[in-house]
Amino acid sequence: MNIVLQIFTLIGALGMFLYGMTLMSEGLQKFAGDKLRSFLASMTSNPLKRVLTGVGVTALVQSSSATTIMVVSFVNAGLLTLANAIGVIMGANIGTTLTAWITALGFSVDISVFSVPLMALGFVLNTSKKQKNKSIGEFIVGFAIMFLGLSFMKSSAGTLLSNKDAMLTFFSHFTEFGFGSDLIFLLAGTILTIVLQASSATMAITMLLATSGLIDFELACAMVLGENIGTTITANMAAAVGNTSAKRAARAHTVFNVFGVIWMLIIFKPFLNLVGIIMETLGFANPMTVDLTSPGADTALLYGISMLHTLFNITNTLLLIWFVPQIVKIVQWMVKEPKGEGEVFRLKYISGGPLSTAELSISEAQQEVIHFAEICRNGFGYVRQAINEQDPDKFDEINEKLIKYEEITDRIEYEIASYLNEVSKNEISEEAADKIKAMYKIIGEMESLGDSGESIGRILKRKIAHNKVFDKSILDRLNKMMDMVQKGYDVMIENLRNENLSDISNAENAEYNINECRNHLREEHIVNIENNSYNYLTGVYYMDVLAELEKLGDFMINISQAAAFRK
């Protein structure tokens, strides 16, 4: 019974470690917010910057998976090219080695004694009304829970290993096959990382096995290589619902890590000897030959494993950074461009559930809103064609497209709203809540743009049913009005793309010009009716179309006003 309790204690300690790591990572991501995204999106002008960006962001958020998912989402949203993303992913592999060093420190030095006081500090910060203080508090609590979990893992493992002979007998079945044993433990590291969805947790287990004497340094290093392969699964899962570019970015992560493990296995023993020499140079025992009963043996093993992890990822990056174009070609071959990728009513940036943090999810939603605006502008092109088309059969074809676009806008509004609703269920900052509120308003107005297009189609259909025709003079006036509306669409999209929008005078001017044009044409219409320039019923349809075009201007100014509010 005591053994069962200790096993569950070990599993619970691992859960604490994982939860603490997740909490720490999410707290930092929330604290960094837009700055982290802007930094990641902008610092990619050359290969060195891309790698350093990946290193910096991963070291900050303490999760290569979080960075890789972030990168995949940016590729999905069109904020990063595939080649730039590969450089950042390479840097993320280096940045994650810091986690290994922190874990090694947690095993070699009992930092858990500070965990409870740190939780008190984290709780105080978490009660603050300021979102940034809350995020810092979340990070501190996560940090404390992570090291408390490590401490429990050590103590529970020590109790379980009181019957060490039985454990050694079990592991001996897998440690006597030479290079085959290396492959077995490499596979074990891969599978364990896939199951736990965290290479840091597998790293902690690897260190625990090594310091307990159950596996030697060589097999521990083989497990570390397996962790590098297993950690790529997270990004591939995130990209499974993304577009083609997102899938290619995730595959690039896999290609990079798998190729690195292959060349490492070729020179595995010499590389381990190099790590041993470096450790001796730094004043530690050689982890390849250390006696576990000697003082400092645990530290030598822990730091040796971390050194192997760091040296491997740095070397792999320095080697493959020159072959990014070839990696791009490989993943393009692996993930083909599907037919119909650019189909108009397909969501472009939101393809699945919310990402790991609300901030990243909101970034994707904002890109989708801009895409929605572009679809509305494309739909207006059919409005112009419908108004100018005199052939009833050709008009019917165009009118079908207007009806289709109205259905498209309804569907896109629903899907974006559903996505935002899922994001809102998470804990979000006031800033994020304001952005979501603004986006609800924006997509509602865009759906109205689609409704107006269909309304104009119905008016024109009634006109044709009554055998009425817009002559050249009426079409010239309507085209003049549509030119004003077209400028309104362009200004609206320009404002949506401006993340720091505060001045919407361009939108106000566009709406003023639309209203002035409508007023001028209305006055002209009264004069023309008095002069019998055209049939009265024709004039009614003309004024109805003009009124709907003016409504488009109202919807567009509402969108720009809402866009200025989303800060």
Note the main attributes of this structure.
567 residues, elongated, Methane Monooxygenase Hydroxylase, Chain G, domain 1, mainly alpha, 80% helix
Task: Kindly describe this structure.
This protein folds into 2 domains: 2-334, no CATH class; 358-565, Methane Monooxygenase Hydroxylase, Chain G, domain 1. The chain is elongated and about 110 Å long. It is 80% helix and 0% strand. The chain is an all-alpha fold and 567 residues long. It starts with a helix and ends with a helix.
How would you summarize this macromolecular structure in one to three sentences?
By secondary structure, the protein is mostly helical.
General shape = elongated
Work out the count of structural domains: 2
Could you tell me the number of beta strands?
Answer: 0
| Sheet having the most strands | none
Helix content: over 70%
Helical/strand content category: mainly alpha
Radius of gyration: 31 Å
- Strand content is under 5%
What is the CA–CA distance across the termini? 57 Å
Order of helices and strands: HHHHHHHHHHHHHHHHHHHHHH
Low-confidence stretches: 340-345
Can you count the helices?
Answer: 22
Instruction: Let me know the average pLDDT.
Output: 80
